[in-house]
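S.,

Sequence below, as promised.
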Amino acid sequence: MKNLQSFVVVIVVLISVIGCDSLSSDRQALSGPWRLKYDPERAGLRAGWFDNEFDRSDWELTKVPGSWSDNDYDGFAWYATELQAKDIPAGYELALVFDSIDDNAVLWLDGRLFGKQIGYGVKFYFDIGEKLSDGAVHHLVLRIEDIGGPGGINGAVYLQPYIEEVDLLSSEASKYTAPPAPEWVQNAVIYEVFVRQHTEAGTFAALMDDLDRIQELGIDLVWLMPIQPLGKEKAKGSLGSPYSIKDYYTVNPDFGTLQEFKDLVHEVHARDMHIILDFVMNHSSWDNQLITDHPEWYTHNEQGEIIPPNDGWWDVADLNYEHQDLRQYMLKMLTWWVVETDIDGFRFDVAELVPDDFWTAAKSACKEVKPDIFFLAEGAVPELHLNGHDMTYSWNMWEGITQLTQGNADPSEIKRSYELEQYQYPQGALRLRFTENHDKERSRQASGDDDLNLTAWAFIALMKGNPLIYAGQEVGATHKPSLFEREPIDWEAGDQDLSRKMAGIIQLRKDHITGSSIFQMVLADNDRKILGYKHGSLLGFFNFSPDTFKFSAVGMDSILLGDLILNRDSTLSLLPKSFGVIK
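The prediction came back faster than expected:
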């Protein structure tokens, strides 16, 4: 970055951008015209859709920011626009900034590969001043990959002069310190359970019989996916989604009774673990009694009909939090569960879709009955940490590490993704780290390699954040259980050796890392596919290549874990597709 001398007067010269509207004297929005083309066959790369001379006259006009018009489409789509800059202000760099894309992007400028971004909802930028310094019109093309739900460029895109990166990327939320999470969750390892699929019986009682094994794995917090009765009207599959709630005040009779659930909570606590429930506050089933008793609590279309949150979620009805009576009902319901069953908190489904001020009220109400209550948000918006949520999803790290195991990302992209987090989130914000969950493909299946699968999980398990295991992951399950059918995990066919290795990684974390341990990325070697970081007293190396990585470790005290060989010349060799941790 260029440092300005004191008392130098900088004259900001207007940057003119084709199709741009001025937002301020130093920021120009690329608001159009943009064109969009869906690519379900993945033909765009082969056909050269990024080339300057490619004819895009048949591409549809679209708005940016915004999601693409086909709400049912998942996959690849392409965007194109033009941009131009004149007289970049003296002493400034020029950035092409994206506030958010959904989910991943590859960019071309004038037909040449320009950059990549991995991860949903993260603000990022590219230095572009040298490319635009000629004042000519340039062509920008993006290929967006959407992982689920409507994709697109869902944040503003603009050119902005800047001096320091922190000034360019820092969000408003990052200026604050996150309210402290409960002490018991600061360094917790989390275990997600789908009761229906966890055992052959699919009951609370059967899950209770597995608690000793779960505890021995090193788990601190058990998260149960929704346990309430499911709606039958418009249900998906033969059983319906666990996220289509028919009755907020009781449990699914297929799982057992409310008393049996209370017994489960008691047994979890007896093993020095905590337990949270997955709650769905944004929508209900179509046969929930609230639709009959309070239809005004739901979102209606122009014809007065209750509607789903989006076209893909047609099995549920959207709740409207503009109604204060609905808010009071939900607050009373949440506190009832805490008082009645002694649970330790909640994981909230699609938390980003519920108003911020409701979450603030919910956390306050729940803390009145249990001061160390814990809120986990299914969401990545930084502001969630400032309205009651203690932890958010790090989708960016999941996407990056998954693509790295598949050979579609470089280590530098993972390092950069973590660095971008630091600009966006409040200080002290807890992030959920995972390589799979119930919404995503099993990590062993996604990686296609047992060694890379373990190395990827070791990477997220020992880094800053709270690691998650989705039940069955610890034995290398490759089949993701359906949300809508009965598909119990096949524990007998599982890889017990993998479970022991994961338990060892967890124990290493507990022995050497605390919630306040300093974390720093120290190595991202794209050529050799190596990542390395220091976390507390630990130094971890993660090899995502088929080759052995040889290195020196000055001041090493001991090898703690992994596939490291101490050579005669005092160097270390890290075996292919493996990890090693030293102290």
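The two ends are 35 Å apart (CA to CA).

Coffee later?
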